[in-house]
Each structure stands twice: as structure tokens, then as C-alpha cells.
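Example for tutorial group B:
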């Protein structure tokens, strides 16, 4: 009986040590995510200003997608995990959109959404990008992605960028930022008001696409950092609760062993 109890105590002690190590890791990851949240929110506010400017231009020109337009979907997320359902949010919204437009092509930013969407809409994927989300997204990174999409010959009338919209530090939701081709923007009812030349229009189209993509990437990054901090906070809390339970179980088991040993000693002394 004593041998079995000692073995059980040793197993509990080993498990307790493992959970304590996990708690240290999750607590460190929470602190790292907390330091990145403030930086991500500052970048998000700056990107929103430029992104809203492009949206205002299209709204003023009354640019709208037509039913017969060729649609391109861009699912914007990242490669990193341990951040709750941040990637599933984008993947689910993308699947709903593609269900309505089965012939649409899909561009994916990040390995996580690629793994989720590849099982369902593999035939729609035109190109994917990885190494996304390691640091704060930059406009140069967004511009490079747009350049590669253009070099691959992926054409569209309307591009819908699906991303996680930051609502607060504890909530986000999947949303869409539209970008339009030169022809679609040129066909806008109020396009003539701007008197844009053709060469400028081409540059404007590329800039607005990159600008919208940058906005989506930065805002998604801010939502991801907040979700990661919340996930690590919950993991640390769960580890703390498990440590308390294991400590109590270990103490009870050790007390039982000591009691049994005292009984044996007293019984042996009584026999003499």
C-alpha cells in the first residue's frame, strides 16, 4: 500500500511541476502580447485614417459592384496560433462569401486560414502567402502582395478583403473592405467629377487596393494580439486552478502516507 501511494505521489509531483512550467510560459506569453497590444492599436488607428480616405472616395463616386462582376476574395489573417478563434472567424466568413460566388478566386494571407480553407474551397485558391503576422504589418508588405497578385495575372472587377475588424480589446468580428478595378471605378456615376487621367487612375487603383489590404492586415493584427492576450490569460488562470487542485491532492496523499507510517510504528511498539 505504501509503495503504491509513494508512486502516486511521485506522479502527482511530476504533473504539478509540468503544470507550473506551463503557467510560467503562458504568463510570459501574456506579458509579451500585452506589450504588443498598445503598439498594434496605434498602428491600427493610423491605418484606419488612410483606409477611410479610400472608402470615402469610392462612396463619393458611388462605386458599386455589379452582379456580373468578376469577384476576388482576399482572406487576411496570419501564421500564428494560440489566439482563440481569430483565424476561424475569417475562414467562416470567407466560406459564406464563396458559397454565394462559387466561381470567385481566393487569395489567402497566412498559413492558418490556408489550412482551414484548403479543406473546403481548395479549387478556388489562386495564390497564398505565408510569413504573415510575425510583426506589425507594413504598407510595403501590403504593396508587395498587391504587386505579386498583379504579376500572377489575377484579374477582378471587385476585390473583397475579409479581415477581423477590431471592436474592443475583448471583441472582434469578420468584416469586408472592398477594392475596385480601374474599369469598375471608371464606370462609377460620379467618376467624371474627379477628372482623373488614365495614368493616374492606374496608380490610384493599385494604391487603393494596397491601402485597403494594409488597413485589413493592421486591424486584424490588433485583434489577434488582443485575442492572444485573452487566450494566454485564460490559460494561466486554468493552470493556476489545476496547480491548486494538484497541490491539495498531493498534500492529502502525503498526509495519508505519514499517518500509515505512524500507525505501523505505534503498532510495532505495542507488540513489543
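The residue assignment follows.
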Amino acid at each position: 500500500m505504501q509503495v503504491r501511494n509513494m508512486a502516486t505521489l511521485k506522479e502527482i509531483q511530476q504533473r504539478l511541476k509540468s503544470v507550473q512550467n506551463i503557467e510560467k510560459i503562458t504568463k510570459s506569453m501574456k506579458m509579451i502580447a500585452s506589450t504588443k497590444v498598445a503598439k498594434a492599436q496605434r498602428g491600427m488607428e493610423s491605418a484606419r485614417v488612410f483606409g477611410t480616405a479610400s472608402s470615402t472616395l469610392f462612396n463619393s463616386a458611388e462605386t458599386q459592384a455589379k452582379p456580373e462582376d468578376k469577384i476576388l476574395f482576399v482572406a487576411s489573417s496570419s501564421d500564428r496560433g494560440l489566439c482563440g478563434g481569430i483565424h476561424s472567424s475569417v475562414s467562416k466568413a470567407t466560406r459564406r462569401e464563396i458559397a454565394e460566388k462559387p466561381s470567385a478566386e481566393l487569395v489567402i494571407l497566412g498559413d492558418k486560414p490556408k489550412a482551414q480553407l484548403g479543406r473546403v474551397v481548395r479549387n478556388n485558391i489562386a495564390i497564398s502567402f505565408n510569413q504573415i503576422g510575425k510583426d506589425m504589418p507594413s504598407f510595403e508588405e501590403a504593396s508587395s502582395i498587391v504587386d505579386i497578385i498583379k504579376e500572377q495575372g489575377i484579374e477582378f472587377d471587385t476585390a473583397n478583403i475579409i479581415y477581423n475588424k477590431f471592436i474592443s480589446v475583448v471583441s472582434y468580428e469578420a468584416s469586408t473592405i472592398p477594392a475596385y478595378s480601374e474599369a469598375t471605378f471608371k464606370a462609377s456615376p460620379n467618376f467624371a467629377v474627379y477628372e482623373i487621367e488614365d495614368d493616374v487612375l492606374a496608380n490610384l487603383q493599385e494604391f487603393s487596393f494596397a491601402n485597403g489590404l494594409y488597413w485589413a492586415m493592421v486591424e486584424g493584427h490588433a485583434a489577434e494580439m488582443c485575442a492572444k492576450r485573452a487566450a494566454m490569460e485564460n490559460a494561466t488562470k486554468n493552470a493556476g486552478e489545476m496547480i491548486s487542485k494538484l497541490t491539495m491532492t498531493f498534500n492529502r496523499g502525503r498526509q495519508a502516507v505519514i499517518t500509515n507510517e505512524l500507525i505501523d510504528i505505534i503498532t510495532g511498539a505495542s507488540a513489543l
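Residues 170 and 226 are 7 Å apart (CA to CA). Compare this with the pattern of hydrophobic and polar residues in the output above.
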